[in-house]
Amino acid sequence: MTELAPNHHADYRQFSGVFGYVAGLTMIIGRGADARLVTRIADLDEGDHVLDIGCGPGTAVRLAARDGVRLTGVDPAEPMLRLARLLTRLRRPGGRIEWVCAGAEDLKLPDESVTVCWSLASVHHWPDLDGGLSEVHRVLTPGGLFVALEKRTEPGAKGNASHGWTGQQAEAFGAMLTDHGFEEVEVADHDLARRRVVVVTGRRELSRSGR
Ligand SMILES: C[S@@+](CC[C@H](N)C(=O)[O-])C[C@H]1O[C@@H](n2cnc3c(N)ncnc32)[C@H](O)[C@@H]1O
Predict the structure, then answer these.
(1) Do 79 and 15 meet the contact criterion of CB atoms below 8 Å apart?
(2) Whole-prediction pTM value?
């Protein structure tokens, strides 16, 4: 069976308008384990500035805010950002949080302005993976960490069960990270309480000298 590209749901249109609010509300529940896993992998400290690309209603941002770091959540869908702002006002997680309406392809952040960038259950929706990875590389400080987390799926899965990555799609995305100059690229499966996820990590190289 021919595997689909890692952004095989780039044409999904359910994050805007009324559907966007419904989708965002469903994402408020059951995402805590994903958020805890990426914060553990990122091993944050107070000097970090974290960028969450495709932050949705902001679960991972609010969780990491408890560590006192600076955070920016970006999402191209206004309903997601409205829910993220509302939940953050209600739950008061502390920390320094900003929300920006932007897609991965045009992050609207300065060069080398974030030390950690993560994206949870979002990369499989990015329309332009090369554009998105160029932007991630641009905004990360040298040595900065990128973490992409997706639900682990089976080849040929349909409907909701297909929203994520097979092992092959995760490996293909890892190869793209290497092509974009990231180092220490790793692909790893994790069994969480309710689901299995696959995580691809890489670091922006410290220096381009010698390349
Ligand atoms: C399944 S939701 C995941 C939301 C959140 N990260 C979570 O795990 O709860 C996918 C998110 O990716 C966002 N998204 C879609 N296209 C995107 C793009 N080109 N760049 C960044 N985010 C995008 C959607 O608006 C949506 O909020």
Answers:
(1) yes
(2) 0.95
